[in-house]
């Protein structure tokens, strides 16, 4: 099964993906239950949109950095993954670097926050916000 195969998870209520958006699965990116709960709480608080967009941009101390933001609608060419009851959007360029990544969340005082575990990363910084391939 490819990463763009449809999942058996039904669409979330009120969320309809445009035809130009492909359905992905958790082989691309998976949120832990803790990350899903935190993202759901932030979506409700921030009211910036019902989708979590994960992007990878150049920058950071290791060359590539993760970016998280909320958005109201997908863009043409996005891949939609539903994980931990959260609709996650990933553009096709980011998908190349993200395949197999797990996003977790910890509320610990030290080393808390969101943490990416990316099997494609050859090196990452101590804060976990940037990596290299």
Secondary structure elements and their pairing?
Layout: E1 22-23, E2 29-31, H1 33-46, E3 51-58, E4 64-71, E5 79-83, E6 86-90, H2 92-98, E7 101-106, E8 113-117, E9 123-124, E10 130-132
Parallel strand pairs: 1-5, 2-7, 3-6
Antiparallel strand pairs: 3-4, 4-10, 5-6, 7-8, 9-10
Brief sketch in words of this structure:
By secondary structure, the chain is α/β, with parallel strands linked by helices.
Largest sheet: 7 strands, mixed
Shape: globular
SS field, number of helical segments: 2
Distance between the termini: 24 Å
Q: Spatial order of the strands in the main sheet? A: 1-5-6-3-4-10-9
- Unreliable parts: 1-10
CATH topology: Hypothetical Protein Aq_1857, Chain: A
Number of domains: 1
Summed over residues and divided by their number, the pLDDT gives a mean of 81
Gyration radius, to the nearest Å? 14 Å
Counting helices, strands and paired strands, the structural category is alpha/beta
Let me know the CATH homologous superfamily. HesB-like domain
> How many β strands by DSSP?
10
Indicate the proportion of strand residues.
Answer: 35-45%
* The CATH top-level class label: Mainly Beta
Helix content: 10-25%
User: What is the succession of H and E elements?
Assistant: EEHEEEEHEEEE
- CATH architecture group name: Sandwich
